[in-house]
Every structure is written in structure tokens, then in C-alpha cells.
Amino acid sequence: MTTSQTASESVSVAIVGSGGAGALTAGSILLAACGKSGLYGNMNRSVGPQIRGGEAAALLRICSHPVDCMSESYDLLIAIDWNNADRFAAEMPLKPDGLVICDPESGEVPDAIAKTGVSIVEVNMKDLAKEVAGGRENMIALGLAAGVMGLPIESLMAIVSAKLSDKGEHIVEAGRNCIEAGIAQVSSHARSLEIKPPEKQGDGRWLITGNEAAGLGAVRGGVRFAAAYPITPATEILEWLSPALSKTGGALVQAEDELSSINMIIGASYGGRASVTATSGPGLALMIESIGLAAASEVPIVVVDVMRGGPSTGIPTKSEQSDLNIAVYGCHGDAPHIVVAPLSVADCLFSTQWAVHLAEAMQSPAIVLSDQSLGQAHVLIDQPANVAFLAQRKIFAGGQVETYNRYALTADGVSPMAIPGTPGGQYTADGLTHSQKGTPSSKKSDHQDQLDKRRDKIANFDYGNHWADVEGDSDMVIVTWGSMTGAAREAIRKLSAEGVSVKLVALRLIAPFMKDNFLKALEGTRRILVLEQTHSGQFHQYLRAQCDLPAEVRHFHRPGPHLIGPEEICTQIRDWISA
Amino acid sequence: MNAPQTKPFKAGDYRSDLTPVWCPGCGDFHVLMSVTRALAELGTAPQDVAVISGIGCSSRIPAYTNCYGFHGVHGRSLALATGLKVARSDLTVMVMSGDGDGFSIGGNHFLHACRRNVDLTYIVMDNRVYGMTKGQPSPTTEPDWDSALSPGGTGLSPFHPLVIALASGANFVAREFSGDIKNSTRTIIEAIKHPGFSFVEILSPCVTFRPDEKEWKNTVHKASVDETDDPARAARRIMTDDGMNVGILYRGNRKPYKAHVSDRIDDMAALESEFAIPPASKT
Do B263 and A247 touch (CB under 8 A)? Predict the structure, then answer.
């Protein structure tokens, strides 16, 4: 990630069509083919509010370097048809020198696009598809995109074969022929959006979503039980985990509601299995009481919250970071627990695996704050390294003991946990305030001791250098967290190209707050821009509550559904410098 | 095979030394006795039994046993027990609840535990009142029972736990009276032994807030028909039930819940291969 960002290193493509036209399939194949050519990139799907049908758009960004945020504007728009495409116009503004390819048989170019003065090229995609036996216009569109971008045809054909082979050889053949027909059209239009060759060759490239990465992180971390209630935009985690757990000796149970799924994982973890559930804001709200139970009874669990627009049902398919407060402060009583936030799609793997490790090591609930922009993005990444965390759950081995004290006061606050089946370890886990033995108690000393113990085990743990990504050196710092890190990084690259250096402090560990590390990272800072995707500035308020920010502070925050992009961040910094 | 065997455990081996918080005369003392006797009779070692509960007088029971226990939040004991049993099928998992915990705040989990049919034994100590909060009507309370919270009664029809258990797919349905320790013990043994989800409602008087329930020892009576594996017959019996007949009602043949298991892979790389894009040079 050392190359500076310029336009020629990144091409943004939108493929739109009505539901069923195959825009998303074309986008998926295009992205995978780019990965096969050694390029990086991402794809977000935008679909209308209809469950089925309606309009669909594949929004791609292809780069010669790893990329962690979406495009703010597009170089190429391919419209298989224009049905309701105007609904997407705000999401995919075209660059002034952008190119539109559309089918003259499929309706008029919408005014909003025609008025911008971009180049418009008409290709009869439907007619071209009809000339191919079994041909479809989305494969023509794919060929057009590949042609304009100068992608190697072998990469495309390999992916088409792999993706369509289960539909039969004739479908693969039709796909190949359509792509060739699409590419052939391009040579006659002399417009090219070629991408620079990749920084490094394509060995070991992965195509993964943040939700899949979170699921994989859980399994890598040792999770062998999950309980699930479907919710947008977290369901893909559960759908990935279900077969993955079956194959690794574990199990996933579909619960009747989130009240049930959280308690199922507490039960499984009490039984000795590392356990996870995944949800979004409304589900997290239902789980909160039992997250407090896990904190009080010291049962390790991991809850992945893929945040969406809130409050209430909000905007289920769009991203926001506004579950920060409930994740940190939701529990009644004093219930310290762990909150981590992945900083990129690839980091969904690491952060979730780390959360499992932290939960198990400290016998505590851990909440992972992912969001829709990470969870549902399809991204080309380098094959992730294997990370092994050594600490495991501290277990009571059984045998001859006078009295087993499940909640014994220890130096680090973590007490050996007896797993059912272990002779001599019988105890009752309890949400009631309890003695060291675990028996219910309303004594002042027991209450104080156990509150202290649970606070200290989390406060004194060694989190290493994973608490944040700290990059660059400047007296101007962007402080952010979670998914906003990708846009912040890209803004910093852009500003660097303009000769403006900005440091990045991106928090992965939200709770407990690493005050000493944070203030050390800010030493010598004159100006801090706090950046987040919330309406009320929850993160900014959280920072203010945790420490005295040691510099002049501005905060930039706004709600979804549109993601804060790099250019907006650059504007904030440029304005501040010139003020 | 037929030689008399010494039982490895006595009922007392399943009791902790903790003194229950229950009022003198509470039916739950008898339920505790029946459960420990049943476990001793079955001979399952205390460390291989988990007793899971929610909130309420009856839900205090795990800590009074010498088994593994979990006293969780209000209404969610069945969910917690489901996770435990699916993850640890080797354990005997008992769920102990009351009429408020099990049928009001936990009502939805009751329906789905019945239909999921995980191999659990669910014992609900029904005293038709919220005792721990000092006397409010529960889902099984009579409509005209007067209380400070619902003066003159709720006017609502009581919930019929056995009907709902049967209709929702429970694999074993029974009712007992706490004071009849002999039959309660026998039924609990059968419930534990029966595969799938077993539901036992135990009428357990609250002598403090429902002193009228002291009469139950005189009003309960043996069910006039024998147990059946025919749900239609069981349904007929329940629909004419006065709420006070005791015994095993239904013993079904549904297969217990089993988690889906695929061919085992032990290599993470095999699991992760779906994400890999082979480099262009290799094709």
C-alpha cells in the first residue's frame, strides 16, 4: 500500500439493469477476472427495496493496489436497460469525462445523466445477445466493460467457466461468445480506461466479503458453535458459518429470535465451546440483557454486529456506525466487556478472530462492530496471513480440591472455569451477584470484589499493538474507527500527493479505551479531525468522555445512507489548513 | 444382568449445602427431592448433569443441586439449555422453570423448544402466581384471582401448558403434583430417559400467596386414561382436562433434534479454498 493514489490506478465501473437482467452476475465475474489478472478492487451491490425484481446495480472499483473504500464517482456506466436507473443516479455520479454505454432499444438515457455532458455510446446489447445461441445481454455488457478496461480475455474466460460450469457447458459457451462479441464492439469505439499493471503479481489473491471474513475469523479463532436469527445485513455471516461449522465438527442452530440466539451461545460456551452469533442493531438491542448476563457470569461469547442505519428498523441495507453507544454502554449495571471494530474488509477476519481470543482469554463478552459497508462488500485482497493467538480459556482441570471457587479472586482477575463433566468443578453460573464460590450474595464485599475483578481483568489485559492502526507522522491527525478507516486512508494518500501530510489513528479496540496508548499516539499533535458515520457524533463524544483531547479538535460526522468518501475528508482538511 | 446392583449415588449426592430461599411448605422443596431421587435412580454422575433455569422462586433450584447449573436471565432458560445440549450432547440437561418464567416471558421459547425437540427435560413448577415479586397473576392464574396489580382478577383465560406442549410438538408430556414425590420421581425418570423434548408440569403450591393451593393435595387425581403415543388421543384427553389430573399423558416417537453434520475436514486451507483465486499463470 505504498503507491500514491492517482486516477489512472483506479477505474470505477457501474453496471445497472432491472432485476433479473444479470447486472450483479456480470459485476461478480468482472471483479473475479480482475483478481485473476492480479488486480485489486471491490464491488458493492445496490438493489432496490423490492425483495425480488426492481433495479440492481453492481458498483465496482478496480485498482492496481489494495483498496478499502468505494468510489465517489464513476468512469464507466453500462446500462443493460434504464428501468428505474434514475433511483441510483445519486449513488453513482459520473466523472466529467465519464463514459456511458447503453442499449438504444432499452429506453431513453435519463435526463440526469444526459445533461452532464458525458460521452454516451450506444451498443445494441440485446441484438448482439440474440445473435449468440443462448446469449444474454449481461454477458455482452461484461465483454464491453472488459474491453474498455483492457482486461486479459483469458482471465475472464477462466472465471466464466468456473462460475457458470454448474449451469452446463452450453451456458459457458454462450457466455464466452457473448463476451467476445462485447469486446469486439469496443475496438470500434476508441475509448480506453486501462488500468496500470498491479503492484504485485496475483499469487494468492482472495475474493471475499466482510461478512464471510468475519465468519472465517470466528472459525479460525476456534468457534465451533453459532446460533442465529436472520437479519440484514448480517445474514451472510450465518449462511457462511452454517456449512463451515458442519465441516469442522461444530454446529449452527437457527434460533426463534435474538433473545434465544444470544442465550444459546451462552449455553454452548458454558459447555466449553467457543461460540458466536451475528446480528444487526435491532438484534443487538434484544441481546443486550443477556450480554450483561455473560459479563456477570463470566461466559466468553462473541457478538458480531453488522451495523446498519438506525434507530429502530432504520435503513437495513445501508451502512452507519451508530451502534457505538449501545455496544459500549448498552448493558445495565457496570458490565465491562470488549468492543472491537474491523478497519477493513480483510480486517473483519483478523478482528473477529482477535475478538474470539480476547473473549476466551478474559471470559468476557466481546462485541465486533462491523457494518454494512464492510460486511456486504466483495473485495479482492491478498491472502490473509495465518495469525495464531496462544492464550486460551483458563480451565479448571478437576481433581482433588477442597472447594472449587469458580469466581476466585486472582491476580489477573481471570478464574479457572470448570467445564460441565469435570468432576469436582460443579458450580452454578449466575447473573445474581455472587460469592467467589458462585453462590448468590448481596454482601457489600462480594459485590465490590466481583465488580473489581471483572473490571481489572479487562483493564489490565495486554492488548499488544492491535488496539489501533497508527500510520504516518504529522501534527495534523485524523482520528477515526472501524469502516471509516478505508476512506480516511485514501484521503491521506490524496493529500500526501498534494504535499499535505496527515497522520492516521484508527481505533480497532473501542472498549476498553486504551487511554495511555491513544494519548501517546497523539503526542506533538496540533490538530485532530475526528471522523465517523453517525448523526450525533457518538465517537467524538466517546473520546471526550475517555480523555482530554490534547489539541484543537474538529469533528466531521454525518449519518448514512451515503458513505463519507475520501474527497469529502480531503475538503475538511484543506479547508482547515487554509482557514 | 439381573443381579441386584448397588446404586452409585444417593439422592443426597445431588444436593448442595445451600439452604433454599423458599418459604416453609413451598412445593418446590418436594420437586427438589423428586429430581435428586430421579437422578440417583438413573445413576448419572452429578458432574454429568446440568440444571438450567431462569428467574423466579423455582428458578433458584440449580444452586441447591450439586450438579452443574446456570441461573440465567428471566425467561431464557430453554434457549440457554438448547445451546448447551447441542454443543454437549453427552450431558443430561434439565431445565427448571416456573409458570411466569416459562409461560409468560419465556413463552415463545417454549413453543420453539417443543418443535425443535432437542433432548431436554423441561420441568415447570406451576403455582399459578408470581411468588418472588410477592403475588401477581401469572399466565396460569384463574381469571377471577384478586391481586393488587390486577384488582378483581385479570379476566383472562389461563394458559394451558399441556395443550400447547402437545400442539407444538413436545415428545413427552406429563403432569404431576409436587407432594406426590413417588410419582413425580417416576415421571421425571421417564422424562429424562425419553429422547427429545420432555415436558413435565408439576403443580407446586405457593403456600404464601396462594394458601388455597394447600388443598391441591386433596383435589389432584390420577388421570382416567393411560398414557398414549397417539397425539389425537392425547389431545382429546387434554381438552376435557380439569387441570388437576396427573400422570404421563403422551409419549411420542419424533426423532430428537440433531445438528447437521457434513463430511469432516480438518484442514482450514480446504475450508478457505472457496475464497482463493488461482493465479493466471496456472491456467
Answer: yes
Cell 498491479 sits on residue: A198
d(CA A513, CA A547): 9
Q: Percentage of chain A with pLDDT > 70?
A: 95
Residues B241-281: tens digit of each pLDDT: 889 999 999 999 999 999 877 778 878 888 999 999 865 44
The complex's ipTM? 0.96
**Which domains, and CATH codes, for chain A?**
7-187 (3.40.920.10), 207-382 (3.40.50.970), 394-462 (no CATH), 467-578 (3.40.50.920)
How, if at all, do strands A468-471 and A503-507 pair?
antiparallel
Q: Report the CATH architecture of B11-282.
A: 3-Layer(aba) Sandwich (3.40)
pLDDT exceeds cutoff 50 at B194: yes
Q: Kindly tell me if the per-residue pLDDT of A49 is higher than 70.
A: no
Nearest residue in chain B measured CA to CA from A346? B275
Provide the pLDDT for residue A108.
87
Averaged pLDDT of chain B: 94
> Average of pLDDT values for A276-287?
98
The string of DSSP letters for A491-553 reads HHHHHHHTT---EEEEESEEES--HHHHHHHTTT-SEEEEEES-SS-HHHHHHHHHS---SEE
Confidence band, pLDDT 50/70/90 cuts, at residue B115: very high
* B265:A248 CB<8 A: yes
Look over chain A and give the mean of its residue pLDDT values, rounded to a whole number. Answer: 93
Q: How far is B97 from chain A (nearest CA, A)?
A: 15
Three cell numbers at B150? 390486577
Tell me which residue of B178, B225, B186 sits closest to B203, measured CA to CA: B178
DSSP B22-38: SPTT-HHHHHHHHHHHH
Residues 6+ apart with CB under 8 A from B146: B152, B153
Classify strands A40-47 and A378-382 as parallel, antiparallel or unpaired: antiparallel
A257 neighbors A231 (Cβ within 8 angstroms)? no
Inform me whether the C-beta atom of residue A321 falls under 8 Å from chain B C-beta atoms. Answer: no
B265 and A247 within 8 Å at the Cβ level: the answer is yes
d(CA B249, CA B128): 21
Using left for φ > 0, alpha for ψ between -120 and 50, and beta otherwise, residue B206 falls in beta
Does the pLDDT value for residue A415 go beyond 80? yes
Question: Going by DSSP bridges, is the β-strand pair A55-63/A40-47 parallel, antiparallel, or unpaired?
Answer: antiparallel
Q: Which residues of B touch A251 (CB under 8 A)?
A: 86-87, 259-261
Please give the interface size between A and B, counted as residue pairs whose CB atoms are below 8 Å apart. Answer: 200
How far, in Å, CA of B79 to CA of B85, rounded?
A: 10
Domain coordinates of chain B in residue numbers? 11-282
- Do residues B20 and B37 make contact, with C-beta atoms less than 8 angstroms apart? no
